[in-house]
Amino acid sequence: MRFLPFFDLRGTARADLVRDLMAAMAVTFMAVPQGVAYALIAGLPPAAGLYATVLPTIIGSLFRSSRHVVAGPSNAVSLLVGGGVAALSAQLGASPTEIAISLALAVGVFQVAAGALRLGSIVDYISAPVVLGYITGAGVLIGVGQLPNLTGSPGGGGDILHRLTVWGEGLGETSLAALGIGAVAALSVVVIRRINKNLPSAFLGLVISTAGALALGLDATVKVVGDLAPVPASLPPLTVPTLFDPALLTVAVATTVLSLVESSAVGRSIADRTGDRLDLSVEFVGQGLSNISAAFTGGYPVSGSLSRSALNHGAGARTRMAGVFAGVFTGLILLLAGPLFDRTPVAALAGLLVVVAYDLVNVPRIRQTFKAGWADGAAFLVTVIGTWTLRLDHAIYLGVTISIVLFLRRARLLVVRELAVDARGRLREVRSGDGDQCQRVRVLHVEGPLFFGAAGELRDALTQAAAPGIEVLVVRLKRTQGLDLTTATVFSAVAKKLHDEGRHLILVGMRPACMATLVRTGVAEDVGRDNLFPTQPGWFEAMDDGLRRALALSEHADDSPLRRYLDLREARAARRSLEGRRPDGDN
Prior knowledge:
Elements: H1 14-41, H2 46-51, H3 55-63, E1 70-72, H4 75-92, H5 96-116, H6 128-151, H7 160-169, H8 176-195, H9 201-215, H10 225-228, H11 247-274, H12 280-295, E2 303-305, H13 306-314, H14 321-337, H15 346-360, H16 363-372, H17 374-389, H18 392-411, E3 415-421, E4 427-429, E5 441-449, H19 455-465, E6 472-481, H20 485-500, E7 504-508, H21 512-520, H22 523-527, E8 532-533, H23 541-553, H24 561-579
Parallel strand pairs: 5-6, 6-7, 7-8
Antiparallel strand pairs: 1-2, 3-4, 3-5
Helix pairs in contact: 1-9, 1-13, 1-14, 1-15, 3-12, 3-14, 4-5, 4-11, 5-11, 5-12, 6-7, 6-15, 6-17, 6-18, 8-9, 8-15, 11-12, 11-13, 11-18, 16-17, 17-18, 19-20
């Protein structure tokens, strides 16, 4: 039942369905122009974008965990698909449509598998700066890619510099009619947004610019949608993917990752506002089924649309039926008014996409990313440059690699602090030589993951702390986790080295899992059972016992500040015991 979320529709009130119908109408007015425009980005017939907004939207609404996320074509995924279609068409000699539906099937299968295997948390390992970098780079590429359509002049392929060069050289052939139509479309969208954000600005902008072109007879002088591929007056056709080539896999995996990251981000942003519980594994399965349905109905890979999902929620949708209704309405428009799209100027779609490209470049988020630190800023910049210079599926892999590197870099960082007695007789972190340090006993507090990647860092920290003159090294492990064999052997090696020199290593505060690993690996014997003090219920009791053992092992610690610290702790504990109060919790 977990993967059949549409059962929550049982008992839906009629008033909720009315709200869903109204929201669906608003979503449809946005989905139709976006479907045609995004198909242009993907290098596919305009009808493919509309096909991808019918059954995939219906299936996604029924099977995903979110009530409000609307599946369908998205700008970033369309751009990635467009790059893959262009490369694979030349490589495999197949038609763009054949490649697109085969990609959709592969992406859907991968996504369903990811959901069934409960890999929902995998998207958390793709960092926000990397996603922002790809979206920003994609926005610029979308804008640059539409410049030839906007000016009616020749354009080229390749990287961004080559496209700009070819477009600039062909500006002498600019069509003023195309430029005017595109400008009217873009300006209409911007003005309508400022008047009322709830109005379908994309749809109205397209209608205004197209109607103006038809009234002035400009449709005969500029390229229209019908010149690319006529939109038939019919429901989406039945298509069967027949292309199964290993070359598809690299693009399919990259598209899978981007679609899941984008859909999860959309779902989470809306769930934060609605309070709904989002199940990412169910989201993955629902998104995968959307893509599989796209493969068999002439569409191409789809994702969760941020703009349409936000509109769906903002328009008052109550249940997942709003998305179902939106898909049905789009199908009816295709059936009844498909050929009307043939008269739409391509320049009008280009004007709409220029606004979309502008929206994708989120300047406040970019500033926030650079303020967060050099690592986040570098990840963002490298990903942006990668989208401009590499194939887009390769740019996705570059972004994933950067995310993994950043994760490993942060995951392996241990926090190792030296502890000393402060002026109030408490054990505190040493800063810039402050605190009364014992000259014979060194006390370290370690925090962080103790997996194999941190072994070198831990070894360096312990070696540095066990400087000449230090007779006993005490290491507190209360706030560590994930001790494995590689890191455990570090403690064994340090203990043996100190023992050979007549010195000692004491470990305190080990949690049960950590202590069990030390015993299983034989490290407990190397350190010495008398030098192991697992965590105890009381405040710092394991530390106190470890310090007493350290002072007993040291030959020159009678006047140690640690001795005064322990005496003060015992005095405080005795006073509190007499007063019937809790044990000392200062430390």
